[in-house]
DNA sequence: TATGAATGAGAGTTCATTCAT
DNA sequence: TATGAATGAACTCTCATTCAT
């Protein structure tokens, strides 16, 4: 709508434009993490960003686009951190362990970011009523990589013959659960939890030893 | 502050009173399932129930109490269905399988109910910003039973020496994940998923065979 | 309206009917005194009376009539107490003193009643915007008596030649002020205040001594 | 809780901002004067101001702040008008007269303003049920000045040895009563009333002539 | 670009009143 | 007579969005 007048669409953004957007996205993350998605009004976000409310409307087509940007940015950061760790793994079993441990590592350093992510997914409902997402802490490219590894592991005989989709969903859900538990129990030993979870996953996925 | 002569407290409720409450709770469940917790206003709920907005205020002290009732009712129903199935299991390993399969069975028949439950938990934020809950589909008494079984299984040597808390959290998260995946993929074979998940859980928890 | 079906108009009331009305009026007084007129909903009044909300609507045509009854009852009680005390006064000057002291006496024993009265007058606005009343603690018959006495005193030369209306208004306002001050300063010595006020009134009203 | 980026706190207000606030305060005064405090909803006030309801919430933190502003503004205006008139008085007796006459003068020109003031004080109840105020038409600084004058007059022997507090309360109440009578009897001669009242006050307060 | 101002819809809640039983 | 249930309007307040400057 109203072409040219607003930088919302697929336009090329200027540098200063991008800086403002990043600043606002960052303020949104902090705000959601602190007061929850439901209470993260544009007013509050603008206030935290130190800009006026109108600025947000100027740079984003609406609250929805802002939230989309938050999600995108957080997912990019996760993938950038986690993917290399998976890549280093010598085999598929190790890759699963690496995934769990890497995400836990990332959690420790980005609690707020991830709380915002969770807040958005939990608070945003599609018109059909429920979040269109069934996973939180796992970015799309990471998910793809995991599925690929699971299949490769099965082909190489390292992993047993489970349903790949179910295993992937379970893995992600377990990671999300770890995060949720940690958020509600801040003194919980995240590292130990990750180690235990890695063991659980490995045992559930690895091929039976030859008789 | 405390409202007038409304039947909110621990009063004895008449039959017709209880009927209305049940009707409203039911309308709330349907509404949340359809439009999500965030959009489930009292107006909409009342509209769906076919009553005026004031009726809800008359029968419940506020939106919070209504949501509490929804949660309570759904959890009661889950526990009533799942606990006996667990109880029938011959040993701890079977109990874990039974749990997974029972919950999946319940899901199939109560999709909307559980979507509402998820909606409430996801949409309700504490003042600190995130849901105080880290699990959804597992009612408190069921959780207690599972922890007890895990410990008993370890003592009897049927289950290996994992961290009980982590295993319980993972189990619940996996079940929640199964539900979330099914909700976003309605054609997904829930029964098959449950069977796969049960296998995953059992493999991750059972004791190693003697060498 | 709806003649015969409701006992609101000038019908003859049965004994039990009157008892209920008195009970409700009494509950209204207590409620207003405690929570203020603005917060004295019919719900709360009914609750305090131990009856259902509908009973009030049955016995009174509406909230307005109930409030009218409260005022009427309180005023009757005041007049019944104060008029004899004025009547005993030997002369007009003494009558003014007697009035002030009698009302103060009554106040001490009927704080709540009078707070309710004040609450109603202050809280009820006519459609023209302001209370139609300019005095509170002085019932109509008492007012008439005072005006009569003031005039008589002037005719007999005991009181000086002031404007009777202004003096009466000032007298009433001073009494209302005494009550208001006492209500906001419960430890205030009401008896001493009344004595001082009587002196003030007498000095302002009595005839100058002959030169 | 605290709202977004609204200009409520101790911010520097722009000129246009102040203009709007003044406009809304003015509309509030008119509305309260016309329909009474109890019926002066934000809707009505906004309607009279010719703005939307939200504007009030934008410029004031809530209804309470708006009412506070009304009171503050009216009291400031009263004090600004009355205090100089008292200051001009040659002695304490004249100061009392000046006070009464000045307030009456002010009333004549600001009927609506003062009706709004009365409406707010009468309509606003503390949790204990009654207005925390026992006087209306007398602003705090004026009250202080009066008490000071009364004491000074006693020390100089111009005024007799009454209880200062009681005299001050009575004076204020008499003024409030004059206003209330005038409001309910618009044709009443306010100037004559004030003159009579001044005489009443002076006679009640001045020292006895030496024998 | 950025802002403060304004809007209007919608939220939850309270309440006087009505009515079938 | 008395009740509990229901109504619908009105309340204050919040918020995403729009727009003139």
TrEMBL record, chains A, B, C, D:
Keywords: DNA-binding
Record keyword DNA-binding present: yes
Protein name: TetR family transcriptional regulator
GO BP term, pick one: regulation of DNA-templated transcription
One Pfam family it belongs to: TetR_N
GO molecular function term, any single one: DNA binding
PANTHER family tied to this protein: HTH-TYPE TRANSCRIPTIONAL REPRESSOR SCO4008 (PTHR30328:SF54), TRANSCRIPTIONAL REPRESSOR (PTHR30328)
SUPFAM superfamilies registered for this protein in UniProt: Homeodomain-like, Tetracyclin repressor-like, C-terminal domain
Taxonomic source organism: Thermobifida halotolerans
Entry annotated with the keyword Nucleus: no
């Amino acid at each position: 709508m109203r072409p040219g007048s607003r930088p919302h669409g697929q336009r090329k953004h200027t540098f200063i434009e991008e800086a403002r957007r990043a600043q606002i996205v960052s303020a949104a993350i902090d705000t959601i993490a602190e007061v929850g998605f439901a209470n993260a009004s544009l007013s509050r976000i603008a206030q935290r960003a130190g800009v006026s409310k109108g600025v947000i409307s100027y740079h984003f087509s609406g609250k929805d686009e802002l939230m989309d940007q938050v999600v995108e940015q957080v997912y990019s950061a996760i993938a950038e951190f986690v993917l290399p760790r998976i890549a280093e793994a010598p085999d598929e079993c190790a890759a699963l362990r690496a995934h769990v441990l890497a995400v836990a590592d990332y959690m420790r350093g980005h609690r707020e970011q991830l709380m915002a992510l969770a807040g958005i997914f939990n608070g945003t409902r599609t018109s059909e009523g429920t979040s269109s997402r069934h996973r939180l802490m796992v970015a799309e490219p990471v998910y793809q990589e995991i599925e690929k590894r699971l299949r490769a592991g099965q082909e190489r005989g390292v992993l047993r013959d489970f349903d790949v989709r179910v295993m992937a969903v379970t893995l992600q859900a377990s990671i999300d659960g770890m995060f949720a538990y940690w958020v509600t129990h801040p003194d919980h030993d995240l590292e130990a939890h990750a180690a235990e979870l890695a063991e659980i996953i490995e045992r559930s996925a690895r091929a039976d030893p030859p008789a």
